[in-house]
Structure formats: C-alpha cells, structure tokens
Amino acid sequence: MKKIFGLQSIVTSKNQNPEALLDSYDLHLCKEFLGNSIKENDLLFDFTNQKFSKSDYIKNNLLEFVSRSKRQSEPFRRRSQKRKSIRQQKNRFSQQRKQKQKQFNRQKQKQRQLFQQRQKQLRKQRQYTQQKFSRERARRESERREQERRRSIELQKLIERIQQEAEKNSQTTTESTTSTSSVGNRARNEAEEYEARLRAQREEEERERNPDDPRNERQPPDEARNVRQPPRVEARRQKK
C-alpha cells in the first residue's frame, strides 16, 4: 500500500475516489507497473544519495516520465513515439526548408537569367543606336560637304559674273569719258585714208588704159566724190 501512495495522491489531487481505483486495479499489477517503470538509472536523482522518495517523485507531476515503457537493450531498444513524431516533424520542416531553398534558388536563377537577357538586349540596342547615329552622322557629313561644294561653285560663278559686269562697265565708262570730237576726227581720218587709197587705185587703172591721155595726169575732184565711201562716212554725209 505504501508503493501506490503516490498514485493515490495524484488521484486525490484530481478530486477522485482512491478506493475506486484500488478496487478496479489489482495491487499486483500496480506493484509490477511501479517496479518496472521506476528505477534509479531512469530517474534524474539517485534515491540513495538524495533523500527523495518515489511518492514525492510522483507528487511532483512527473508521472509521464515514470510511466514510460521499460528501456530495452541497445540493439533492440524501441524508440519512443514522441521522439519519432519529433523526428518526423523535423524531417518535414527540413524538407520544407529544402523546398523553399530550391524555390528561392530557382527564382534567383530566373531573375539572373532575365537580368542577363535584359542586359544583352540593352547592349544590342545600344550598339544598334550607335551604328544608327554613326550612319546618320556620316550621311549628314556627306550632305554638308556636298552643300559646301555646290555653294563654292555658285560663289565662283557669281564672282566671275560680277567680274565680267565690272569689265563691261569699265569699258563703257572709258568710251563715255572719251570726247565726241576725238571720235569724229578718228572716223574722218579713216574715211579720208580710204578715199585716198581708192583715188590712187583709179588713177593707176586709168594710166594703164590710156597712157597718152593728158587727163590721166590730174583727176577732177567731182569724180572722186562720186566714189562709194564707207558706211560711217556715207551716214555722216547724209546727215549733213
């Protein structure tokens, strides 16, 4: 009865009748249960050194530790279900962590691939834009050079035309500055020289025809006036 004192104390603490428990369970079974479950090696305290009774151990609400099954030998020892559940839970948590890590690694890899692809596209676009701007720059440079060449040709033509006009203006100004009297004298002298040449030619011809005729020695002035004169001289005579 002393061995189950701790059990009675636990039952009484729960406001139950200890006599009903004694009637329902055999004392021999209770003795066997307590004798097999509680041992000095399984407990935290040594009963020999520490003055700590089994009843006090049960009173301290450590029945779950006391009521576990007997420990077997090392090769055939049965592992507790509680630890198994803990192991399973740990394995489940570890698997979840691994899955999350794999998912995280997958996302990082996708982000890295997308970043590399974006960088590649930007590099291609930058290269294309550089080539495009270089082509555009070359085209604009060629157009600018062509425009400068055409402008230089136009300027050269304009300069030549201005020079020609200046020469013409200079000639007209020199002619206008010369006096009308000098122009008339030059025309008159030319007409007189032409008349003298024609008169000498007619006299030569008459001498050849009639060398014995005395009239060939001196030609009358009236016949010399009837000789055809240059157009300028005739125009001047008509005006007179």
Automatic annotation (TrEMBL):
Sequence segments annotated as region (Disordered): 69-152, 164-240
Name the UniProt record assigns to this protein: BZIP domain-containing protein
Basic residues bias spans: 78-111
Species for this entry: Strongyloides stercoralis
Bias kind Basic and acidic residues: ranges: 133-152, 187-240
Low complexity composition bias: residue spans: 170-186
